[in-house]
Amino acid sequence: MKKVILSVAIVAALGLVSCKNEAKNEVESTQTEITGEVALTEMSFGVRGNCGMCKSTIEKAANAVEGVAQANWDVNKKKIDVAFDGSKTDAMAIHKAIAASGYDTEKVAGSEDAYKNLPGCCQYDHTMEMNQSGEHKAEAHDEHHM
Ligand SMILES: [Cu+2]
């Protein structure tokens, strides 16, 4: 008799676990639907910078703009990909926020004061080409081997 009770308890416990999993899945899919309803504007533009620290500063500045959902700066291409809610912000606000952190964008020159406060390795060349193909590094690598 005890064994029966025990197995009933196990079955009940298993049922509880699977119910929890289902509930979790429902929440996740609802969240996906909600984000799917917001039409995000995606765009990319040139931003100068040198390294991984530049990347975090640039992305942090872009992400701090209300309405920005995603920001990803490419160190090789000197270019940022952003996704934002066009009803909350616009491209120019993102350009300005990045410039305020010390970095030049295609449209707005970086703040000189912020630039001076960047770590030495991050004080990029103001004549640096933006929107590069990203293949320069690979080519240089090949030459090195020859
Ligand atoms: Cu840097």
Automatic annotation (TrEMBL):
It comes from the Bacteria. GO terms for molecular function: metal ion binding. Keywords: Signal. InterPro entries: HMA_dom, HMA_dom_sf. This is Cation transporter. The keyword Signal applies. SUPFAM superfamilies: HMA, heavy metal-associated domain.
